Amino acid sequence: MNKWRRFDVRSGKRWGCAKYMENSRRENKHLRCHAQRLVLMLMTLTGLFLPVWAADPEIDRLLRSPVGKDWVTNGGNLTNQRYSTLKQIDTFNVKQLKGAWMTRLKGSGFGANYSFEASPLVKDGTMYVITGNDDVFALNAKTGEILWEYWSGISQKGPLCCGLANRGLAMGEGLLFFGQIDVSVVALDMKTGKVVWKTPIEQNQNGYSITSAPLYYDGIIYSGISGGEYGVRGRLTALDAKTGAILWRSYTLPEPGEFGSDTWPSGTDHAMRGGAPIWNTPALDPELGLVYFSTGNCAPNHDGSMREGDNLFCASIMALKAKTGEYVWHFQQVHHDIWNYDASSPVVLFDTVINGEPRKGIAEAGRTGWVYILDRTNGQPLIGIEERPVPQEPRQKTAKTQPYPIGDATVPQCAEKLPDYDKAGCIFEPFWESPVLIQPSGDGGTNWSPVPYSPDTGYFYVSGTVRTSAQWRKAKEFVRGKSYGGGAEAPPPGSSMSGTFTAIDSKTNKIVWQNKTPYRLGGGATVTAGGLIFRGEPDGNFLALDARTGAELWRFQTGFGADAPPVVYEVDGEQYVAIATGGNVTQGSAYGDAVWAFSLKGKLGPLWPPPPPATVAGPLWIESRWPTVSMASTPIATGVVTVKVGDTKEYSYSPARIRIQAGTTITFTNVGKLDHTATAFPRNEWDTGDLASGQSKAITFTQPGTYNYICTPHPWMSGQIIVE
């Protein structure tokens, strides 16, 4: 396998600052460019893992060590295991747990278009948390008192697929680091919250954004990038932690002539807008000098007709040299992805023994429902993965085979036949322009949820979504900064939606135990040396489970959707468990702006439960989040000739149900900030096409009947027109 360098500057000719600034869209000043050039030249000439001394030796030590009283990075430490060694709270006393404090964050990220998905960080008794509005708060980790606050003040009008969210922070050298929706990486002073530097790494109007938490280690910030639904070119960006200077970029889509380019059609530029974003926080092995991450779906995500080939490096796990971004290895989970099976959960590093031999492992839970377990030194399977023939659709240029991990899937992988649909299939079932029912859906399996690993049990703990979707292809021209879906998927009206929480044995990839849940699970979990798993649910409940058996030991109602990964820390000898509760757009859970902390000495009791999220797919149920509203009980408006699209904080139609006479013309007007559609579902009899903010489309309904419709970029939006 050829190895190749993926940073922007590849030859002597391209070391020039003018060319570099052109490639970087002139986001850095000329002097900064010379500094970047010097750093890259030194690393390339020497090949050494520079610098020799650590920029922040204390944080680096904590990142390399098992998690103790502080929680200093999104995944707990460099492994992303989310395993805490604290055990003051255990399986025997967890029932005594109560709220130590609950703090509301002044309305930040409070609204139906926001998700609260961040893991707080804790260092020396201070907690730091970021909201879906990219606002940062420092709290007293013992009392919840707000110490300082940073308000981003950025525009939220740019392209965005799935609501406003930010999954967390990194820390080092006295700074907090995070990405923003405007595609900037920002550093704040940890003591004051003041901005130290801000570096744009792309342009939001081109479809890019940042939702993942970055990783800090040894003076470098590693940040992924989002936007696969907008035809972006995915990449990992490395920045100097002290100055914000961009050190290198490693692209997840190859240029012509680079390794992997032969998996895209020759003579085309499809790979340059082929997606493969990085939704997750990387992991890093200092001994091997490698940084690891997983990549998202190809673009257009439901149309493979123009991108024949396996399409590297979409839906893959990748390893790069941590100091230079040079490619080392990859493993592709889904060849030529047309199902939106992106790998968006963070990779997890672990050490194990297989057949009596110590092995260095890496795992990632995919939307396919499988956990992919590999050797992190070379990307080869630790437990067998077989290439098996799959059904074909020549028009989609489908791959002849797909990887099948040996072991158990955490969710069902076949859809049941339903009325109004001609075909139902299992995983990797292809489709064309007529909807086909498939399970797992592109929103099934494991989405962004982090997967903890316990060295005590050897188990991974996997959150899953059980949902069937109808998927279909639709031709779509690429327009920079516009949705580039190439089709859509949506759950059949009236179909059930639920979840699973599963313990997978890392030595066999088989299920040890599994809990079935009434709701889709999206927030992930955390495991402790006290034998406990902590996880939230979208109905507001926060749970503690026995890590060995899955038995529920404790439950507490937080009052808001509990859809974020919890963290564990200690202050003054007292152990706490904390979780951000503010709901999730795609889950339809109750929104809020609260952070809860729990301890054995806590005094606070539970709140009243919020309205639960939907367990049946719309438009029989429409998720308005607060509260969830049954479509059947939604009033039917008459005398209406205009439907507002993107009303009520972006993700709804108003009115949602109307009754008209045959021959009536209805005008759909986008009053939101994002692009939306109104598309008949499931038969696609009519479609407004993409409507930018302020645009309208008139459609005349001549035939009596009941027409359900959705927004294809945001399929949780649904409406109904009754024609008499």
Write the layout of secondary structure elements.
Blueprint: H1 17-23, H2 30-46, H3 57-64, E1 83-84, E2 98-104, E3 121-123, E4 126-130, E5 136-140, E6 146-150, E7 170-172, E8 175-179, E9 184-189, E10 195-200, E11 215-217, E12 220-223, E13 235-240, E14 246-251, E15 283-285, E16 290-294, E17 316-321, E18 327-332, E19 348-354, E20 357-365, E21 371-375, E22 385-389, E23 401-405, E24 424-425, E25 436-438, E26 453-454, E27 459-467, E28 469-473, E29 487-490, E30 497-505, E31 511-517, E32 525-528, E33 532-536, E34 541-546, E35 552-557, E36 567-571, E37 574-581, E38 594-599, E39 621-622, E40 629-630, E41 637-638, E42 642-645, E43 653-654, E44 657-660, E45 664-670, E46 679-680, E47 696-701, E48 705-710, E49 718-723
Parallel strand pairs: 1-32, 24-25, 41-44, 42-45, 44-49
Antiparallel strand pairs: 2-38, 3-4, 4-5, 5-6, 7-8, 8-9, 9-10, 11-12, 12-13, 13-14, 15-16, 16-17, 17-18, 19-20, 20-21, 22-23, 25-28, 26-27, 27-30, 28-29, 30-31, 32-33, 33-34, 34-35, 36-37, 37-38, 39-40, 42-43, 45-47, 46-48, 48-49
Helix pairs in contact: 1-2
**Count of DSSP-assigned helices:** 3
The low-pLDDT segments are 1-52, 620-632
Query: What's the CATH H-level superfamily name of the largest domain?
Result: Quinoprotein alcohol dehydrogenase-like superfamily
Number of discrete domains:
2
Order of the strands making up the biggest sheet = 1-32-33-34-35
Q: What gyration radius follows from the Cα positions, in whole Å?
A: 24 Å
SSE class: mainly beta
Head-to-tail CA distance between termini: 64 Å
Helix fraction by DSSP (H/I, runs of at least 4): under 10%
